[in-house]
């Protein structure tokens, strides 16, 4: 007979960091901060990102030490540590962390760097802890994500068109939109602005092929375009966009990114289309939901331009101009039209924070907690 977590008493939740230091880390921090503001939840964190770095460095050091003083033939017998080895070792203390926190729930953000064996072991070993998975890469990685969603008790997805497919493997899948963080994504920030340049157009994100294509075919002459994020690994130095890449090879702190949005004339939001990674990745054109950048730009009071998705008009009305990715000249035309209209940009930007005022992580957690309490225990689990 299935049971649910009783409403009385605080729910003890262990949240697993996504492992990456980019936008998914913002999702993690927003979630944790919102959980900490609740009186009915006791939250702890599993620092997967730091563990990945530490275990990678440890395995490299031990491998080099194992090679020292050995002959060429003996060196061939020493196994080379792999990324898979690093991920396994980074996840191995998770079970101890669950016990130490006496957790009722394990909530995994993204799950990209949680080893599949860990999901399977949680499913097999757990007699108390329910597992929730907060997906951040829908619909682009749904094939991979479905494999691990099937091993959870509850799954949330950031894309509303992905709910139906994921429910085939995990019936308790719901749509949880992205959100913005209190104290970070607001019209006035706390970052030292003397270190933040003010660009005409700024984009902070990863250089997926479709983004490279759209930006390359746009004439940026006379426009101060600035690209921040993961571009160094995808663009050769001879590429025409290379001149616009800033802080090459350096991570972009999330607070600095928010200040870039507040300082720029236009914040560019290019929705991802690549299904997976690499230049030959298939493209998804059916996604409907907003990405984190859309909420963050708006919460910062930053004027933004993006390509079309249904939720853009649903949330922002006509305050966010869109361009047509199928028209090579569209992006440049929209950018130049709005660079000339400072008053129009300011009027639209002033209205954007109100449009996303309800889309905080506190609101998302207010959806998640009742769903977690209503999730039945698996057979043999303690109530």
Short description:
This protein has 383 residues and is α/β, with parallel strands linked by helices.
How would you describe what is shown here?
The protein is an alpha/beta fold and 383 residues long. Helix content is 39%, strand content 13%. It has 15 helices and 13 strands. The strands form three sheets. It has a six-stranded parallel sheet with strand order 2-1-3-4-5-6, with helices on both faces. Strands 8-7-9-12-13 form a five-stranded parallel sheet, sandwiched between helices. Helix 9 (209-216) links the parallel strand 7 and strand 8 (225-228). The longest helix is centred in the first third of the chain and has 20 residues, at 48-67. The radius of gyration is 22 Å and the shape is globular. The termini are close together. The model has no long low-confidence stretch (mean pLDDT 91).
Mean pLDDT: 91
Structural class: alpha/beta
End-to-end separation in angstroms reads: 11 Å
Order of helices and strands: EHEHHHHEHEHEHEEHEHEEEHEHEHHH
What integer value in Å does the Rg equal? 22 Å
Q: How would you name the oligomeric state of the polypeptide chains in this document? A: single chain
Strand order of the largest sheet: 2-1-3-4-5-6
Uncertain residue segments: none
The number of helical segments is 15
Helix content: 25-40%
> What amount of the residues lies in strands?
5-15%
What gross morphology would you assign?
Answer: globular
- Total strands: 13
The main sheet comes to:
6 strands, parallel
């Amino acid at each position: 007979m299935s049971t649910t977590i009783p409403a009385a008493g605080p729910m003890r939740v262990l949240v697993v960091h996504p492992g990456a230091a980019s936008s998914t880390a913002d999702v993690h921090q927003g979630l944790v901060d919102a959980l900490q503001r609740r009186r009915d939840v006791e939250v702890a964190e599993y620092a997967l990102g730091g563990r990945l770095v530490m275990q990678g460095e440890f395995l490299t050091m031990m491998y080099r030490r194992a090679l020292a003083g050995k002959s060429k033939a003996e060196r061939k017998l020493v196994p080379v540590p792999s990324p898979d080895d690093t991920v396994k070792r980074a996840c191995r203390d998770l079970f101890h962390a669950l016990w130490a926190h006496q957790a009722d729930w394990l909530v995994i953000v993204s799950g990209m760097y949680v080893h599949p064996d860990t999901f399977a072991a949680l499913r097999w070993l757990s007699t108390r802890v329910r597992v929730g998975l907060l997906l951040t890469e829908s619909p682009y990685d749904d094939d991979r994500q479905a494999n691990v969603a099937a091993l959870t008790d509850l799954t949330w997805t950031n894309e509303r068109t992905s709910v139906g497919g994921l429910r085939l493997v995990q019936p308790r899948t719901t749509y949880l939109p992205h959100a913005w963080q209190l104290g970070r994504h607001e019209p006035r920030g706390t970052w030292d602005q003397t270190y933040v340049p003010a660009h005409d157009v700024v984009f902070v994100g990863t250089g997926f092929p479709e983004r490279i294509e759209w930006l390359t075919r746009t004439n940026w002459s006379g426009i101060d375009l600035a690209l921040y994020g993961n571009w160094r690994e995808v663009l050769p130095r001879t590429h025409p966009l290379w001149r616009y890449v800033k802080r090459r090879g350096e991570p972009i702190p999330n607070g600095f990114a928010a200040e870039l949005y507040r300082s720029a004339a236009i914040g560019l939001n290019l929705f991802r289309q690549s299904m997976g990674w690499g230049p030959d990745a298939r493209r998804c054109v059916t996604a409907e939901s907003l990405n984190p950048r859309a909420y963050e730009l708006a919460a910062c009071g930053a004027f933004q331009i993006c390509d079309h998705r249904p939720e853009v008009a649903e949330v922002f009305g006509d305050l966010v101009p869109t361009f047509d990715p199928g028209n090579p000249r569209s992006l440049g035309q929209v950018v130049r039209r709005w660079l000339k209209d400072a008053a129009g940009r300011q009027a639209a930007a002033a209205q954007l924070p109100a449009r996303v005022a309800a889309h905080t992580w506190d609101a998302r957690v207010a959806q998640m907690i009742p769903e977690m309490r209503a999730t039945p225990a698996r057979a043999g689990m303690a109530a």
